[in-house]
Design brief:
The chain is mainly β. It has a single domain, classed as Porin (Beta Barrel). The protein has 5 helices and 18 strands. It has a 16-stranded antiparallel β-barrel.
């Protein structure tokens, strides 16, 4: 047993050492099911990844340490994921904007092959590390990383108080609720289709290019509090781990705060919560792995409120509702220097979705994403396909997705090692990068970016 624990410890620590020297949803892995002895459906809605049930949230907050599995597989913290898809947009790419080695439209792609190291090291330590390669641009990188160096439980007035620490590389990757960004809907998206230019900082500006340290407390399985800070990694590290700066590099540790309260009743669960983060950054220059502080720094401040509801019943009929609203204040004092433009801008975004699953096998989800804010010529300049003719971030999208999970339940063939989800998703834009028609100034309409995605998602 000691040898097994030591081997698992080194498997987790070797990538961590690399991360210290130096996104995509997929949290449900067979290694967790083997470790706990629980079927994937115990922790996940829709059979697997990444939407969590109350038990799944408890497993994550508990540091991935829950045991109960038997046999050799329970001690092997390794899993593999493959995602492939077909993408069709209402209008193809302009000939000068075609993604590398793909056609103007109707493209098949191997979106990613990911390896996972995940599980417990004793009763107080665990984690998850993802490594991803994609054929879309033929790159590999360190992906979602959520390590729990130490967690334990105290008795406080007859109630459990769990205290824990995290070491992660993406704000909200450690969050237990699927309203937030790292694990939010859509859980899979086209790697080729055009997407709106504007997103709040919390949505991915520090995904994979930071290291964050946070401390959390979970009282009576209801009140969740977390706080910590993030620093971007060095250019040398990012160049070797396949990630780059997005808005820039942090000047000082960027504070992150999270609070949520959850209720449980009659096989249902609901929560409300809030998030806060701000960061002073030296803006990215557009050259890979380079930022500049010649004109000082920019500041981004995000405030978000979120809520969710789950009806689990006896597992026959399952329904969920999720939503998050984010307000961002941008002080672009460095980026605006010498341009003649102002430095103060605002960005707002709503993301909401409702889903229904029958026996965790057949599912349908409806989503809505709306982004709006002040005209910002610094971040949203005019450009073919990707730009905004009026410099506005405004976009509005409706998403519908249907899923079939033939393998992924406790009664499935080779459970829990054979997990397959097949799906079809359609995204319709009524507004894109500030406009409905000719949004980029080059004649492209928002509806031209409407996207049909057909995908296969395999984990074993």
């Amino acid at each position: 047993m000691v040898r097994v624990m030591r081997s698992r410890l080194w498997i987790l620590l070797i990538p961590l050492i690399g991360l210290l020297l130096a996104v995509r949803p997929a949290e449900a892995i067979p290694a967790f099911a083997s470790q706990t002895g629980q079927p994937c459906t115990a922790c996940h809605i829709g059979a697997y990844g990444p939407q969590l049930t109350p038990l799944g949230r408890a497993f994550k907050i508990g540091g991935y340490t829950q045991g109960g599995g038997e046999g050799v597989a329970a001690s092997v913290p390794l899993s593999l994921m493959i995602q492939g898809s077909f993408t069709h947009t209402s209008s193809g790419f302009p000939t000068d904007q075609v993604p590398q080695h793909y056609g103007t439209n109707n493209n098949f792609s191997l979106d990613q092959i990911s390896g996972f190291v995940g599980g417990a090291i004793g009763q107080h330590t665990g984690g998850l590390i993802q490594f991803t390669w994609t054929d879309v641009d033929n790159t590999s990188h360190v992906d979602n990383t959520d390590l729990r160096p130490y967690t334990t439980v105290f008795d406080l007035g007859g109630k459990d108080l769990r205290i824990g620490t995290t070491l992660n590389n993406n704000p909200t990757v450690q969050d237990p609720y699927n309203t937030t960004f790292a694990w939010g809907f859509p859980y899979i998206a086209s790697a080729l289709a055009p997407t709106p230019a504007a997103n709040p900082m919390l949505s991915g500006a520090f995904s994979g290019n930071t290291i964050g340290y946070t401390v959390y407390a979970w009282y009576d399985s209801k009140l969740y509090l977390e706080g910590g800070a993030y620093n971007t990694l060095s250019p040398w590290t990012l160049a070797r781990f396949g990630n780059d700066y997005v808005i820039g590099s942090t000047v000082s540790p960027a504070p992150y705060l999270r609070a949520a309260y959850e209720w449980h009743w009659d096989k249902s669960a609901a929560h409300v919560g809030a998030l806060f983060m701000y960061a002073d950054v030296d803006p990215a220059t557009g050259v890979p792995f380079q930022t500049s502080n010649v004109n000082g720094s920019d500041r981004y401040t995000d405030y978000a409120v979120d809520a969710g509801y789950q009806f689990l019943g006896d597992g026959t009929h399952i329904a969920t509702v999720q939503g998050i609203y984010t307000h961002e204040y941008q002080n672009l004092r460095a980026t605006s220097s010498g341009t003649g433009f102002g430095s103060s801008y605002n960005l707002d975004q709503i993301r909401a979705n409702v889903s229904y699953w029958y026996r965790n096998t057949y599912g349908v989800t409806f989503g809505w994403q709306k982004t709006w804010g002040s005209a910002n010529p610094l971040l949203y300049p005019q450009a073919e396909l990707t730009g905004s003719a009026n410099n506005k971030p405004n976009s509005n999208a409706f998403i519908i997705e249907a899923d079939w999970v033939p393998f992924g339940k406790d009664t499935s063939l080779w459970a829990p090692f054979m997990n397959l989800k097949l799906g079809i998703q359609y995204t319709a834009y009524t507004q894109f990068n500030g406009g409905s028609s000719n949004y980029d100034g080059a004649g492209r309409n928002a509806s031209d970016n409407n996207t049909l995605l057909v995908f296969a998602w395999l984990i074993f």
